[in-house]
Each structure stands twice: as C-alpha cells, then as structure tokens.
Design goal:
about 300 residues; alpha/beta; 6-stranded parallel sheet; 8 helices; elongated; disordered C terminus
Length: about 300
C-alpha cells in the first residue's frame, strides 16, 4: 500500500447493530473519494499504549454509549474530528458531527444532523422483480402486538400481489410458532429466524423488489428503505402517545417514503423512492466535510 490519505479509527462496543452502521458509513466514504483509506477497528477498552502504535487518525467514528469516552479521548490526544452515530450519552457539543435518527430528539449546536433511521451497509445486488419479503417483529415496549391482525394483513398482502413470491420471516421477539398460524398459499415461503444465517435478512432485503415490515421493527424498516425498494408498514396500536417509532413512521409517510397497511395491501406508485445507499452516502459527505484533505481530495459526486 502506498501513502494513505485517510486513516479511520472506528471504535466498537461489539454490538452487531452498531457495527453494521459503522460498516455502512465506511463503505460510503470509500465510494466517494479517490484517496486510499485505511481502517482500524478498535475495541472499547484498548490500552492507550496500543493506540499510540497505530497510524494517527484523520477521523474517528463510533456507535454505542461505551465508545463515547474513548472517542473523545482520541479527539483530544490526536486533535482530530470525531463523528458519533446515534444519540450520544454525553452532550452533543463535545462531538464534531452527530448523526441521529430522525425520531430521536437532542440538543443541536449546528453539529447534529438527522438521518432517516439508522445507517446500513450499501446493497451490492439488484432487486428481483418477482421477489417480495415480509418481516415480522413481536412483543415490544412501543406497540401492542396482535398476531391475528398481523397474520390477516400478511395474507392480504400476498393475495394482492400473487405474481410475487413472498418470503415471510419472524424475529426473536415474535410469539412462538407465529408463522404456523399462516395458511401458506403457493406463492409464500416462511422462514423462522432460528434457521437463518446472520446475513440472511440483509441478503433477502437486497434482492427484494418490495418489502413489508411491522411497525415495531425499526431497524429492519430503515434497512429496507436503504435498499431503494418500495416499503410498506404493517400497523399496530401504539402503547403511548409519545412514541418515537410511531413519530418516525409518520414522518416517513409525510414525505411519501412508505405505505401503510391501512391504505391498502399494494404499495402505491406515488412513493418517493431513493437510490440504494443514498442516505448513507449523504452522511458520508458530511463526514468528509470535516476533513481538510490537501493532497488528494477529489470527491466523487453520485
């Protein structure tokens, strides 16, 4: 490897969801610049002596409360910009850039930018027009779960689009044997989460031309939106008025980015679709704006 123009330090707390967000942002940064990029993933708790042996960072990234103090320590020691994903546990003014899902609320000192949900890796496959996917959540603190109503909606979605083959997946929060309550028509395959690999859902979403998600499954909803395919939301009754997930979904509806099951079982043609990975690339540009790349800083506009 020749001289590296950009060195990224990525602090990790080991949680897969946080790691996934960081991976997506790194991918987008790499896709936007012609510089060589060197990435160092650093586990929370790594001794300072070990950090001092690494190449000096150009930019520090991290997601998860446990990463916040190590990131700020690095910012002070190396005098580099610091980007935090998700709403931080510390005051936002300490960070150079805060990327916060639009349903969260936090103080903004000009450094906070809202994102459409959490960030995801950028899809690298094309959608299959004959494939659809339905993702089912379960018991949550935000919504009242109703298996009968959800399965009735799922059946209606499959009937409304008989030309598609639907893959229906449950999740760790789903009631036991939820999928057994579905009368499987010929255009449906069911998969229990216990029988799938770690990358199964991501691969399934990337190849799907239409996705429906129960409203309690926020992470899956925003990952589905990241693919650029049309997304529908299977509605549930909210447990309280101040429901940040419901607020986020209403914001998506307002901007015509999702369809609701109460509006019909076929996703409308008037949705405002985005290209795959568009939101992640937008956030990557915000990160690159923090840097003063002098020698080789060509930004590729997509």
């Amino acid at each position: 490897m020749g001289m590296t123009d950009l060195v990224l330090w990525v602090f990790s707390d080991g949680r897969k969801g946080h790691e996934k967000q960081a991976v997506g942002l790194i991918q987008a940064i790499e896709s936007l610049i012609e510089n060589s990029v060197e990435v160092h993933r650093i586990a929370v708790g790594t001794p300072v002596k070990r950090l001092s042996e690494l190449p000096k960072p150009s930019l520090v990234l991290g997601a998860g409360n446990a990463t916040h103090l190590p990131m700020l320590m690095t910012k002070v020691l190396f005098k580099v910009p610091c980007v935090v994903l998700m709403k931080p546990s510390l005051p936002t003014i300490f960070f150079d850039l805060v990327l916060v899902p639009h349903h969260d609320v936090c103080s903004n000192f000009g450094n906070v930018h809202t994102t459409r949900g959490v960030l995801s890796p950028i899809p690298d496959v094309s959608a299959n027009p004959t494939q659809g996917v339905i993702l089912l959540g379960g018991i949550s603190r935000h919504f009242h779960w109703d298996s009968e109503s959800v399965l009735d909606t799922v059946a209606n979605i499959c009937v409304a689009s008989p030309h598609k083959h639907w893959t229906i997946c449950d999740s760790p929060r789903s009631p036991t044997n939820l999928l057994n309550g579905l009368d499987n028509p010929s255009n449906v395959t069911t998969r229990q989460w216990r029988t799938t690999s770690e990358s199964f859902i991501t691969d399934l979403l990337n190849s799907s031309s239409e996705t429906w998600v129960t409203c309690d499954s926020a992470t899956m909803l925003y990952e589905a939106l990241n693919t650029g395919a049309p997304v529908g939301v299977i509605e549930l009754l909210s447990k309280r008025k101040n429901n940040k997930l419901a607020r986020g979904i209403q914001d998506l509806v307002k901007h015509q980015q999702v369809s609701l099951s109460s509006e019909g079982y076929s996703i409308g043609k008037d949705l405002s679709l985005t290209s795959p990975g568009q939101e992640t690339r937008r956030c990557a540009r915000l990160c690159l704006n923090l840097l003063k790349l002098k020698k080789c800083h060509t930004i590729v506009t997509l």
